[in-house]
Structure formats: structure tokens, C-alpha cells
Amino acid sequence: MQANGSVAVNGVTVGAQTATSATLSTTSASDVFTVGTGIAVGSLVSGGAADTVLNTAGPGTLSFVQANTYVGKWSFNAKTNQITNPSALSTGPNANVGVGAILDLTLLGGAPFVPTTAGFGGSGTGSTVGTTAAAVVADPGGSLDLSAKNINLTFAPTAFSGDTTHPALYIAQGGLDLT
């Protein structure tokens, strides 16, 4: 499903067949694609299987504003992926922030965001937000709390020896809780 301009949808169902992949994307930096406007009742992204992947793509903003029941994996590759509901990711196995993607948690305020997925990861190649970083931006008083999560980090280069210029996950604003 692709958005051009400002678009809102009240429901996305991902097939429950194994190894299914679906993509929500924008076409320009000024596009805003809102998944769940509060008009519909119930979950907004549903379906999936443990090995299903829901990708986000494009230069605009994808905003997830409702609790969801989708049970597959999340792959955030869009420029900005805005989470405005603590249960937006549902209970899938993993959420991953890709190179150049931003997971925006600022609208959650100063409270820690604990992903409802079993795991969380990043696959950045640098620390430039919006280009090479797999970035998380929280409220200055907020944080990403991964203390009880499986953490999956994909490094580039693969031989990591103290190279801080290639972080797999970059916290651009806010904090990271690991304890």
C-alpha cells in the first residue's frame, strides 16, 4: 500500500500465510501515512504469522496511532516511523530499525517505551540520522527500554573492534535502558 500526500487508513490486514511480506510506503518526504485514525474500533494492523514481515518504506512519515494485533515481524525502513501508542507493535517476534530509518517515539512523552515485541534490533551503518543511522528519537525525558528484550544488532563492518562510527542502533535523543 502506497501513500501520496496525506493518507489515513483504518485497517491493514496481513495474510497469515508463512513467509508473507507486505510493504506500507510513502512517495515523497512531505507524505504522511497514518495507520489507524481512531475512527475504526479494534486493531488496525492484524494478521500475520511468526515469519511474516511488514516493511515500511519511503521518504515520508508512517504513523502508528492504535494498538495492533499483528503477530509478525516489523522492518522499519521508511524515513520516519512514528509510534504514538505503546501497543502499536503488538506481540510479534521482532522489530528492526534499518539503515536511514528513524523510529520516532517523541509523541509518547517522557515515559519509557517498552516494545511489546519479543525482540528489537538495528542494522545501521553510521551515526548520521536519516542517512546511515538506524535511529531512535525519544522525548528528551523519555527512553527506549530494552531491558527484558532480545537485542539483535547487525554491524557493518562485521569485525567490530571499538569502531563507534558504525553503530547498529543509534539513540539520537532520549535514553536507552538495558537494565
Explain what the structure shows.
Strands 1-4-7-9-11-14-17 form a seven-stranded parallel sheet, with no helix packed on it. A seven-stranded parallel sheet has the order 2-5-8-10-12-15-18, with no helix packed on it. The chain has a three-stranded parallel sheet with strand order 13-16-19, with no helix packed on it. The protein has strands at 2-3, 6-9, 12-14, 21-26, 32-35, 45-47, 53-57, 61-64, 73-76, 80-83, 94-97, 102-104, 112-113, 119-122, 135-137, 143-145, 150-153, 170-173, 175-177. 42% of the residues are buried. Helix content is 0%, strand content 39%. Mean pLDDT is 79; it is low at 37-42. With 179 residues, the protein is mainly beta. The radius of gyration is 15 Å and the shape is globular.
Mean pLDDT: 79
Radius of gyration: 15 Å
**Percent of residues in helices:** under 10%
Detail the poorly predicted runs: 37-42
Strand content: 35-45%
Q: Specify the biggest β-sheet.
A: 7 strands, parallel
Number of strands: 19
How would you classify the helix and strand content by structural class?
mainly beta
User: How many helical elements?
Assistant: 0
The backbone outline, from C-alpha atoms, is globular
Q: How far is the first residue's CA from the last residue's CA?
A: 38 Å
How are the strands of the largest sheet arranged? 1-4-7-9-11-14-17
What is the count of distinct domains? 1
